[in-house]
Amino acid sequence: MPDRIARQVLRRPAPVVRAEDLVAPAVRKVLDAGLPGLPVVDADGGYAGVFGTRELIGAVFPRYLEQLRGTTMISPALDEVLERRLECAGQPVREHLDSEHPVVDEGFSDTQLAELFLHHRVQIVPVLSGGRAQAVVPAEGFFRELGRLLLGDAA
């Protein structure tokens, strides 16, 4: 049973976002893909990171929110500041991508995926081949296949 999940059709072909693309069209690409994020490539087509849910939230909201343990002391007036922060739509993705996002190479194992989803709390894991993004494994797909195994529904 080892690597049974990895052998399932978990790898989802995904479009890529270019690092020089602007945030607004990149968001459209992510939404159209139906994924929580997409791999980002540099000018040479090499993997540069991920842009998605967390990166957009980080681009729009003040960065210090990530350090807070709660938001009860934040005034609702802060929401007015967000209008000005929407200017990120015209900024290049490279200013907001996660360049330290974990990845796997072809031939990854179930255990590798489980560790990445548990330890890093990511929603997708890009699959690379020769330093280039080939696909992504969404956490929800991993959960679905793991659930099927648990329930005895796997083929």
Can you characterise this structure?
The protein has helices at residues 4-7, 23-33, 53-60, 78-85, 110-120, 139-151; strands spanning 17-18, 37-41, 47-52, 104-105, 124-129, 132-138. With 155 residues, the protein is α/β, with parallel strands linked by helices. The chain is 35% helix and 18% strand. The model has no long low-confidence stretch (mean pLDDT 85). It is globular.
Largest sheet: 3 strands, mixed
Backbone shape = globular
Count of alpha/pi helices: 6
Ends distance: 12 Å
Low-confidence stretches at least 5 residues in length (pLDDT < 50)? Answer: none
How many whole angstroms does the radius of gyration measure? 17 Å
Structural class of the secondary structure composition?
Answer: alpha/beta
In percent terms, what proportion of residues is strand?
A: 15-25%
Could you tell me the mean pLDDT? Answer: 85
Number-wise, the strands total 6
Strand order within the widest sheet? 1-2-3
Order of helices and strands: HEHEEHHEHEEH
State the helical fraction: 25-40%
